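Now for my pick.
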Amino acid sequence: MSNEKIWEKYLTTRDVEARHMLILQHLPLVRHLAGRVAVKLPAFIQQEDLEGYGVIGLMEALEKYDPAMGNSFDSYAYHRIRGAMLDEVRRQNWLPRTAWQKYQLLKTTKERLEGERGEAVSDEVLAKEMGVSLDELHQLVFHANKMYLQSLDEEVMGNDGSQVSKLEMVEDSNSPDPLSIIEEKENKRLLAEAVGELGERDQLILSLYYTEELTLKEIGQVLEVSESRVCQLHSQAMKKLRKHLQDMMNN
């Protein structure tokens, strides 16, 4: 079936099979955007997660697209997919929106100055270029750095002034804090209870993905549904799970 026929069938009848075919056709666009967005985000945000958010945006674009608007679907979907990714990142990001924007400005300003000068720039130069005080710059970097995974091999200044690796400063895991043990057990109990509140299909999807470590495509083969549908079901299951956990914590 030609692409035109697929679109005609979907737009006139909202045929499910045609919808799945259109989603699969545009998955490369989702992956492309996820790769571009991931470059500008903290390391703990995985590209695979971005792709999942992007698929949701793609499905929403299909639902709301109207050829009468005059835009091509690719152009319309581009903004919906990218917006879905960024919206989810903002929801997960603990930094206030204004602080996040300032951090993005810091990154772009630093990259621009270093590109122009061909060398690293000092904090003083960077702060002046951004129009903020040196203290404000340091505070912004301090909070933003908490978002990033850090290497334990990185050397820092020890209490005695010597250089030590971060690994050497980590508390001995063989002597854990008893309160931490209790908290961890309680968290596992709550998680197990929250999972138990989910439906059978949701439990199966989470088990296949996180326990059996199957890919979305493999799960789709097990459930006999498309990869995009599995992505949607996984996202829905995670939202339900978060809600159950929040309800338990509030009670």
Notes: The chain has twelve helices and two strands.
